[in-house]
Amino acid sequence: EFDGVIAIDGPSGSGKSSVSRRLATELGAACLDTGAMYRAATLAVLRSAVSLTDTATIIKVVEDTGFEFGTTPEDRYTRIEGENVDDAIRGPEVTAHVSAVSGIPEVRRHLIAAQRAIIADAAHGIVVEGRDIGEVVAPDADLKIYLTADPAERAKRRSGQNGADLAATAADIHRRDTADAKTTRPHDAAPGAVVVDTTHLDLDQVVTALHELLAHKT
Ligand code: C5P
User: ipTM strictly over 0.90?
Assistant: First the structure.
């Protein structure tokens, strides 16, 4: 039975979330969507109506807010003070501001500590997905994957998911990847990571490839 840590990094629309969720379910492991954590922090900041230039107060809001992240296949959720916010954190307002909040070093430090605690608690293994997982959050992961895909394909997948216009989605992905590149490295694989280009692969094919990589590693 798998009880290790799998780190999955990649830019928006690379398929990280769907692939990670499916892989975790098939392994009977937990799955941590670290993007959801940065999104929840951003929603808490937006709700508190603090100015987005007031970094010190933003840090305080993030540190003082009660977040909960359910990571098991049967029980996956994001909560702020007990309220489920899974839909709210995917909205355009959060997406527009998440890079500004995730770019604050103290916010990252706080959430990375929370991520490491969740990883340490995972009894049956965990798939962790996001931006700086293989390099910063879980450098000792048993398997590190960097998922990537052509920008046009990534935009197509994202607009298919949220029903938004293709050109607007492509522009938004590009804007966010560029902003994120200041703090994380969305375009680079972590040392020791296996690069998987998903441009011409469907979900089943990617998940099968990851099972094979895992079998070789462990
Ligand atoms: O993956 P998702 O689109 O939900 O990520 C939302 C945002 O959260 C990213 O654009 C990035 O700013 C931030 N993020 C991060 N580090 C992670 C995961 C997400 O900075 N590990």
Answer: yes
